[in-house]
Design brief:
alpha/beta; 6-stranded parallel sheet; globular
Amino acid sequence: MSTPETPLVRVLDADGSFAPSPAAEQYLPLIEAISDAELEQFYRDMVAIRAIDTQATNLQRQGQLALWPPSRGQEAAQVGSGRAARAQDTIFPSYREHVVARIRGVDPVDIIRLMRGVSHGGWDPTDPKNGNTRLYTLVLGSQTLHAAGYAMGLSFDGRTGTGDPDRDEAVIVYYGDGASSQGDVHEAMVFAASYQAPTVFFLQNNHWAISVPVTTQSRVPLVERSAGYGIPSVRVDGNDVLASYAVSRVALDEARAGGGPRAIEAVTYRLGAHTTSDDPTKYRGSDEEESWALRDPIVRMRAFLENRGASAQFFADTDAEAADAAEDLRARTVELGPPSADKMFDHVYSDPHPLIAEQKAWRARYEASFEAPSGAAGHSAGGQA
């Protein structure tokens, strides 16, 4: 069974020329209102995170990290949507939204802590400096349930749909094409639609769920999955940062104003591996990769800015800033020490618990028992162990 192709919202062609698709017409006033400073910030965000991403991949190859999920090729989808959210909105990432987290204030080294295995979560999502960014979720799709539930809570608490855009809140949750086949995602859409919760489902369709192509996962465009639940859904060129920004801004504004959930399918491509434990050459051809490389979101935005008159100095400064950010990440990563053993007890319960306190004290007594008695000669039992 075939279905008509869903219109794609695109503003910039692959060569960076301003060529809005018919589906983009309604978003043009919003795009035209973007300042030069904001346009340049979009570009700086993308360049910086690619440099950080490359550095993190190198660190993993050198044994400094257990794992790293690259985001190369998906920068425009993430920067556009991340910049579209308001300060009071809450972000529910999956595990490769590195630039969204950075935009919201999360220190990239906190992401490194998680991937290095020295932190259970990486950062405190309740700390205002982290911009309402929830923790990464490695269990596919479960974050969509968390997001829908949180958004339902916003509705119940009267924190959305009041008509005050400076106070009303919304939620944006990120997931991939592979996760879109998980039951959790569909359950989340059922609840969000039933309760008209202010949730924006942001699907990054990078065409590969590890080694399974999207054509195997679905016989129709993935945007139709959310539309099937009665959720207004838009398909956007995920390699076009302007289109991603505009579509996300409108969806968040509508959800925040009481319009219920919205869904976005950002059509993009994973230029690198799924994670550093993956070898994409085993399941996809170089022709496909080369075709998508011609649609690189950073190259596209650079050409657009050059056509608008951005100076060579701006691009040189941007590259230098990105290189500094990557080098800073490396320096602080190699300085990370092991976590305190007490951390395994500190966050089991939200409140003090006598059993956990006793286990913590027992561990301290046990380790102390290996210490050599004062003045003892030779090897102690602890030293022999």
